[in-house]
Specification:
With 459 residues, this protein is mainly β. It has helices spanning 55-58, 236-240, 320-325; strands spanning 13-14, 87-94, 99-104, 110-114, 118-123, 126-131, 155-160, 169-178, 181-190, 201-208, 218-220, 226-229, 248-252, 271-274, 278-284, 290-295, 302-306, 335-336, 345-351, 362-367, 372-380, 392-394, 403-410, 418-423, 429-433, 452-457. The longest helix has 6 residues, at 320-325. It starts with 12 loop residues before the first strand and ends with a strand. Mean pLDDT is 89; it is low at 1-11, 19-46 and 144-148.
Length: 459
């Protein structure tokens, strides 16, 4: 297995502390801040205990699905601009190979994926390769196309079981080949095993795949169901087909069964919403409202408030005037950028921490196009939105009238393409870039790319 190194010439360098995260302190490995661990042992300690082969045969992954905290319906909506406070970034790991997702486990371990076929962990100042699933396509070896070498598949989403390390199960979304066709699947792995890939339990299979539009986000929601975003694989008709898993948001149990309470839409019972093009972000407001970020065609990127059983219009509806003319069966977006620019929005987070006060209670989304971080304030009817002079404001008759969305751009061209942002157990903000996928703009990739970085207020 691969090992990290803190030598300046190593392909992957861990540079600074993720201090105070959960029960595990992720110390730096340069200078006085920490020491490097050369061991390739996994966390928790790898085991050779004989027993069932597959993760779901080894462990009971079931959970109580009661919400941990009551929904907060009185959360404070910001009225100031997030641009009032300058931000700084601190690289923690350099030379990553097209990272895609981040997941903090309950014990503070950080799991992250690289699209080229790896799942990594970052703990105690050391980066380790946890597993390299044998079936995953090499995202750099696909035929060239207009998109980029490798397309958009590979090892994508990752989510630690909510009570990790008991059980030591991690979920991974990846693209593979079946009968000469690309498909996506979600698997559960025992990462305490000597060979986690050998313990794969496939919990969702047959998600349409392609060189483009693979979706791929995994995250556990407040009620501890696993949510999965899937793309239309370049075939928009799949998004409207309720029997297909393409172009959907799925909600399943930790074992992959349909979540109780899922809507009956006359199709696959794992589907929560449909009519999506390429959703890549999911976030929850304090009151339990689910927000999805989604790539559109030629711009027309969207933020959507998810309602059980909702149809979000793709492939039939995407232009502003189409939403204005659509009937009530089509859910309207909170934001749609139109064809002038666009965001290419990726992973999302509703930030509730204290480490960056100016961003608290805002939706944060990685912006691939434009190479920035998007901070969206969602203001309910009757409340005052933040200043919109330097923002994009969505409050038209064709938008979802539950909120006014005011989106400010941050960190423009400072880190390049921001793929995902996550809140750590310490309340800090951590993000990964995607500058080595062939699509970065001027100035990127830089020699250190790609990176895991921490966002802080500038001193």
């Amino acid at each position: 297995m691969r090992q990290s190194s803190c030598d300046a010439r190593s392909r992957r360098q861990c540079l600074a502390a993720l201090g105070g995260i959960g029960a595990t302190v992720l110390a730096g490995c340069r200078g006085e801040s920490g020491t490097q661990t050369e061991s390739s042992d996994l966390t928790p300690t790898a085991t050779t205990t004989a027993g069932p082969t597959h993760a779901l045969d080894r462990y009971d992954v079931s959970l109580s699905h009661e919400r941990g905290q009551s929904p907060d319906t009185d959360w404070t909506v910001p009225t100031t601009s997030p641009t009032d406070t300058p931000l700084a970034t601190e690289p923690l790991i350099e030379d990553l190979e097209i990272p895609w997702d981040l997941s903090f486990a309950a014990d503070g371990t950080l799991f992250l994926t690289e699209r080229v076929g790896r799942v990594l962990s970052f703990v105690d100042g050391s980066v380790r390769t946890v597993t390299e699933p044998a079936a995953v396509i090499d995202a750099e070896s696909s035929d060239d196309g207009w998109w980029v070498t490798g397309g958009e598949g590979g090892t994508l989403g990752v989510a630690a079981h909510p009570t990790y390390p008991d059980p030591p199960v991690v979920y991974v979304y990846y693209t593979t080949m079946t009968d000469d066709e690309r498909v996506n699947r979600v698997v559960a792995m025992d990462v305490s095993a000597e060979d986690p890939a050998a313990t794969e339990s496939v919990i969702v299979d047959g998600i349409p795949g392609s060189k483009i539009h693979n979706g791929g986000r995994l995250t556990f929601g407040p009620e501890k169901y696993l949510w999965i975003t899937t793309g239309d694989a370049g075939d928009g008709e799949l998004a409207a087909d309720t029997d297909s898993l393409g172009g959907k948001v799925l909600r399943v149990t930790p074992a992959g069964d349909p979540a109780p309470g899922n809507p009956d839409i006359g199709g696959d019972p794992r589907v929560f919403t449909y009519g999506h093009r390429n959703p890549q972000g999911l976030a929850w407001l304090p009151d339990g409202t689910v927000i999805a970020s989604e790539h559109g065609p030629t711009g027309r990127d969207e933020l959507n408030r998810l309602v059980a059983g909702g149809y979000y219009g793709w492939p039939d509806t995407r232009k502003h005037e189409e939403y204005a003319d659509a009937g009530s069966e089509v859910r309207r977006p909170l934001a749609n950028t139109g064809n002038a620019g666009g965001w290419a929005p990726s992973g999302s987070l509703f930030y509730t921490g204290d480490a960056v006060p100016s961003l608290r209670n805002r939706l944060l989304t990685g912006g691939l196009k434009g190479q920035k971080l998007l901070a969206t304030t969602l203001t309910p009817d009757g409340a005052d939105p933040p200043p919109g002079d330097d923002a994009e404001v969505y409050d038209a008759d064709w938008t979802d009238d539950a909120y006014t969305a005011t989106t400010h751009s941050l960190l423009a061209d400072e880190l390049g393409r921001i793929r995902h942002i996550e809140q750590g157990p310490d309340g800090g903000l951590y993000l990964v870039t995607s500058n080595r996928d062939g699509r970065a703009g001027d100035g990127f990739p830089r020699e250190r790319d790609d990176v895991l970085a921490r966002v802080t207020p500038a001193e």
